[in-house]
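Q: Please design a sequence for this.
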């Protein structure tokens, strides 16, 4: 996934800028344990011109200076859902992780999540399908 694709994914309203709300929503996909204050500080660091939004240049500079590897971050997130380390995420893996995070979903909802992105129809989410799921959300 390119830097531009990541930026466009986070920029939900497609105005060419990432608002604080869009930023917070994107970060929360990766971790729910970060505080609102930490998120606001991260946003302020990236918002170099102080206009309350992050443009593509600020985003790119933040990624370069922060040495952020998007693929690595996605893989780490994938691995946190892959409970048995087999390279696939099952509906029960998703159910366990989401409920552990306090996001109460039924097993049926988790099955539907898997089915929504299970391109090869094997009943599991592999890493490529997981990336598709993150991008679409």
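A: Design:
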């Amino acid at each position: 996934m390119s830097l531009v694709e990541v930026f466009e994914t986070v920029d939900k309203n497609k105005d060419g800028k990432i608002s604080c709300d869009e930023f917070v929503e994107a970060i929360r996909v990766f971790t729910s344990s970060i505080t609102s204050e930490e998120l606001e500080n991260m946003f302020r660091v990236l918002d170099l011109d102080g206009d309350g939004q992050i443009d593509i240049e600020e985003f790119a500079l933040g990624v370069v200076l922060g040495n952020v590897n998007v693929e690595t971050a996605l893989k780490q997130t994938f691995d946190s859902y892959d409970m048995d380390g087999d390279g696939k995420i099952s509906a029960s893996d998703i159910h366990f992780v989401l409920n552990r995070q306090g996001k109460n979903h039924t097993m049926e909802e988790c099955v539907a999540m898997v089915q929504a992105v299970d391109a090869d129809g094997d009943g599991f989410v592999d890493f490529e399908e997981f990336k598709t799921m993150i991008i679409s959300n």
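Q: Thanks. Anything notable?
A: Strands lie at 18-19, 53-54. The mean pLDDT is 83.
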